[in-house]
Amino acid sequence: MPLAADYPFLDIFWTMIIFFAWVCWFWILITMLADLYSRHDVSGWAKAAWTVFVIVLPFLGVLVYLISQGKQMAERRNAHVRASEEALDDRIRSVTPDGGGAAAEISRAKELLDTGAIDQAEFDKIKRLALA
């Protein structure tokens, strides 16, 4: 195992830290570019300028964008998440049967049972079918 002796633990640890920092930087870079290209209030020329700035001076370009647009990035992301959740909720409501599913069906059957329109056996059957 002479190879292990040539690469001590602190060098391995330092390599892991550098690799982790490299992955984090790429994550921030991709997030920054995704935010930039999803914006509708920035012209194509401004997007191209930011991209060139990030290519020429990568760390400085990303840091300047994060400092100048950090709060707005969070607001845009939150608005996008809210819109996605509302769209999902609307879709779920559109495919859900009128009345809200099993709970509403059992509630209607209970009302019928209370008024005497159905007996306990019919209520149990409706409840079993609703829960199935």
H-E order: HHHHHH
Q: Kindly, what is the distance between the CA atoms of the first and last residues, rounded to a whole number of angstroms?
A: 63 Å
Provide the gyration radius in Å. Answer: 29 Å
Strand content: under 5%
Largest sheet: none
Number of helices: 6
Number of strands: 0
Shape: elongated
The quaternary state of the protein chains shown equals single chain
Number of domains: 2
- Helices and strands: which structural class? mainly alpha
Low-pLDDT runs: none
Average pLDDT number: 88
Helix coverage percent: over 70%
Write the layout of secondary structure elements.
Layout: H1 2-6, H2 9-38, H3 44-56, H4 58-95, H5 102-115, H6 120-131
Helix pairs in contact: 2-4, 3-4, 5-6
Concise summary:
With 132 residues, the protein is an all-alpha fold.
Report on the structure:
By secondary structure, the chain is an all-alpha fold. It folds into two domains: 2-95, no CATH class; 100-132, no CATH class. Helix content is 85%, strand content 0%. It is built from six helices and no strands. The chain has helices spanning 2-6, 9-38, 44-56, 58-95, 102-115, 120-131. α2 (9-38) packs across α4. It is elongated, with a radius of gyration of 29 Å. The model has no long low-confidence stretch (mean pLDDT 88).
Keywords:
132 residues, 2 domains, 6 helices, elongated
